[in-house]
């Protein structure tokens, strides 16, 4: 039976989608992607638990023993109360933005970046691929939930490939349609392979989101809508299948045993649902609500520290994902032998820190990040556009709270500085090797995301 709280969650997510339908451009893409992500976490998982009533067992993170102990009906209703509140605050913010957007339809989009923008993106992508290959071959690529990379410098440089791929997917426009399809296909395939290598869904989801942003930039067609839906579904489904290939025989056998306790109609979706674990974080927050974790002042302090490189700060910074695992989830689950970084979610983090007012602040902070990403992708300045690409490539719009988002922004700002240095190098090289390069006019709308549909565009351009 669907509880009132679950119904409110579904209604709030539907409201977000409706608001997105009245908003133009990239903001619509981000809002729909958020609604889909939160639907998998806060709707699909509860519905599976309510319909199947699975028995908790080893290596099954879907059947949470804490929810089972309370009874799935009662447990899900309790943990979704702050979730329903937070999603409705977010839905109202989206509706307010939709009204504002309709009143400002005639504003002029931002001009473009320089003609060196695409060569810079290609350069940072190539450098990032080299770092990825080196980190993978040396065994320092990392994996899902790792607290820190065994080679921090290599991991930092490898992030260039992610930003470069996102930028090329969004902005690159060869004259030939089939060349475009080939390049986009190659970029998406590489991101899928890296997703499998690092055991994280973030690279392929970021690439799929970038493709949707590209379509929003040049206008939607039926082919584009179908393409983005198919890529998202195939990407996530293939991720689970490819991960199973890497698993040893005993792990695959254990996964088959675990999945066999679910009805056959549900089993194909279990690998996907296991990757969207915000319901677990909501359960963590419910059990932590009677205990103290961080004060709002401490959150502000740690957030500001996250923007400063550790070498300059001179002290160890809080890792919110690790702290959530050991201190928040650790209050209701035995985490003594587990060392991992977890997604907390804006709603769940806010509820643990300051109750329902904290939830409201957390979701409005995420909405502010969404608007920052939209504006950054419209900027004429490379550094600002790079920040927008970093936001698009990261999970902060979906599964991180204020602390986690500030950590990502701090790393992104360092990445922006590195890309700015690379851009200056690329410009100087092009100036010396091609005297005509500096005389070429900048593309008319290279770095700006169009806010109106362009008629007559090629389906994949």
Automatic annotation (TrEMBL):
Keywords: Membrane, Transmembrane, Transmembrane helix
Membrane-spanning ranges: 6-23, 76-100, 112-131, 151-171, 178-197, 203-220, 225-242, 351-374, 381-398, 404-422
Recorded superkingdom: Bacteria
The protein's name: Oligosaccharide repeat unit polymerase
């Amino acid at each position: 039976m669907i509880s009132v709280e679950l119904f409110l969650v579904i209604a709030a997510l539907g409201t977000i989608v409706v608001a997105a339908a009245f908003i133009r451009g990239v903001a619509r893409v981000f809002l729909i992607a958020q609604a889909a992500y939160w639907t998998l976490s806060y709707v699909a998982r509860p519905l599976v638990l309510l319909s199947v009533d699975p028995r908790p067992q080893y290596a099954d993170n879907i059947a949470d023993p804490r929810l089972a102990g309370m009874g799935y009906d009662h447990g899900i209703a309790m943990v979704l109360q702050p979730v329903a509140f937070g999603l409705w605050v977010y839905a109202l913010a989206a509706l307010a933005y939709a009204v504002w957007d309709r009143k400002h339809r005639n504003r002029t989009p931002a001009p473009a970046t320089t003609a060196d923008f695409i060569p810079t993106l290609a350069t940072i992508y190539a450098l990032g691929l080299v770092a990825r290959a080196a980190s993978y071959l040396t065994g320092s690529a990392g994996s899902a939930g790792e607290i820190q990379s065994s080679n921090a410098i290599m991991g930092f440089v490898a992030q260039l490939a992610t930003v470069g791929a996102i930028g090329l997917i969004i902005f690159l426009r060869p004259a030939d349609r089939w060349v475009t399809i080939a390049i986009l296909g190659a970029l998406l395939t590489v991101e899928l392979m890296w997703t499998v290598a690092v055991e994280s869904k973030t690279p392929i989801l970021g690439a799929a989101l970038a493709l949707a942003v590209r379509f929003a930039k040049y206008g939607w067609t039926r082919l584009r809508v179908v393409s983005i839906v198919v890529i998202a579904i195939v990407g996530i489904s293939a991720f689970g299948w490819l991960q199973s290939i890497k698993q040893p025989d005993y792990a695959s056998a254990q996964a088959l045993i675990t999945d066999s306790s679910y009805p056959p109609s549900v089993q194909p979706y279990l690998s996907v649902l296991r990757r969207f674990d915000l319901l677990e974080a909501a359960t963590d927050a419910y059990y932590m609500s009677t205990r103290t974790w961080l004060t709002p002042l401490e959150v502000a302090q740690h957030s500001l520290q996250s923007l400063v490189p550790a070498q300059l700060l001179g002290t160890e910074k809080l890792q919110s994902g690790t702290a959530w695992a050991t201190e928040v989830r650790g209050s209701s689950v035995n985490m003594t032998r587990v060392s991992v970084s977890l997604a907390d979610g804006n709603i769940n983090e806010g509820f643990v820190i300051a109750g329902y007012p904290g939830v409201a602040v957390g979701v409005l902070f995420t909405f502010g990040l969404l608007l920052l990403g939209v504006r950054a992708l419209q900027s004429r300045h490379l550094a600002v556009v790079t920040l927008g690409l970093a936001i698009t490539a990261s999970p902060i719009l979906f599964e991180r709270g204020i602390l986690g988002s500030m950590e990502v922004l701090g790393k992104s700002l360092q990445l922006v500085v590195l890309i700015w240095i690379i851009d200056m190098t690329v410009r100087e090289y092009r100036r010396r090797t091609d005297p005509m390069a500096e005389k070429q006019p900048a593309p008319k709308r290279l770095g700006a995301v169009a806010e109106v549909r362009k008629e007559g565009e090629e389906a994949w351009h």
